[in-house]
Specification:
Length: 251
């Protein structure tokens, strides 16, 4: 895996979206680079949704060149999700009801705290790609969303911890966790990340409701994650693999 912890950082005040800014600057990127904005005015979520940025929240994109094949890009999303999860645990001295929700969300007290948007750009006449990992974390404000539209409710870390979170401090802790995780998988390889991810998600056997990319919903038991990042759900005698969609808890 590329060494992404040794990164440089570009801080900006206001941008449309840090992922879009990363794409505009792609020709300047020579080593892993963070693009972090105080404020995003056109933040993007998965599946064409909008990411609403609240005051004092973290919005940033990590950009780097990779020779991984596109089917492995999800592993980087898991990698970042784990590092974020560990950062949040580390910043709180109290036990938290925190887990990773497939594919890339962090859920605190059953509400969405963070999301990750993975995008890529192929380098012409090469097998390499620029990978853009866009990360939003509700540190100090939870955007009020129409739950019916978004399918989830939001939360911010400050409300749970009872004090404001300094974005820069959060970023420092986050980079430490990225470096730790990088060292941990140095020997075992990036594929090992699925095992780390599974330790921070639902229990095997939990009943989940899934909406696939076509909008079809069904329920089943969580049985794991396959090598391509698909979620495995058993429904009666069959196991479905879903590669694109959203998970809900069965209510
Ligand atoms: C999701 O859960 O739908 C993914 C949300 C990703 C939001 C981040 S904020 C920084 C980066 N820039 C964007 O426009 N989106 C990502």
């Amino acid at each position: 895996m590329e060494e992404i912890s040794a990164s440089k950082t570009i801080f900006l005040s206001t941008v449309d979206s840090t992922n879009e800014e990363a794409k505009r600057r792609i020709n300047e990127i020579v080593s892993p680079t963070w693009i972090i904005a105080d404020k995003q005015v056109e933040g993007k979520g998965r599946h064409g949704k909008t990411w609403f940025d609240g005051k004092g929240n973290f919005t940033g994109s990590l950009v780097f060149l990779t020779s991984s094949v596109p089917s492995k890009f999800f592993l980087y999303g898991f990698f970042i999700g784990i590092a974020l999860y560990d950062t949040i645990k580390h910043m709180c001295n109290e036990p938290l009801d925190l887990f990773l929700k497939w594919p890339n969300d962090i859920i605190l007290n059953n509400r969405k705290l963070s999301g990750i948007l993975i995008e890529s750009q192929k380098i012409l006449n090469s097998n390499k790609f620029f990978l853009i990992l866009g990360i939003g974390v509700n540190l100090n404000s939870a955007p009020q969303l129409e739950e019916k539209q978004s399918g989830y409710d939001t939360i911010c870390l400050a409300d749970v911890l009872g004090h404001q979170i300094e974005e820069k401090k959060f970023f420092e802790f986050f980079k430490i966790e990225i470096a730790k995780l990088e060292r941990a998988i140095e020997i075992e390889g990036l594929e090992k990340i699925v095992d780390y991810w599974l330790k921070r998600t639902y229990e095997i056997g939990d009943r989940l409701e899934i909406k696939n990319y076509k909008g079809e919903r069904f329920t089943g038991c969580f049985t794991g994650i396959d090598q391509d990042g698909g979620i495995l759900i058993s429904t009666g005698n069959t196991t479905k693999r879903i590669y694109s969609g959203d998970v809900f808890f069965e209510s």
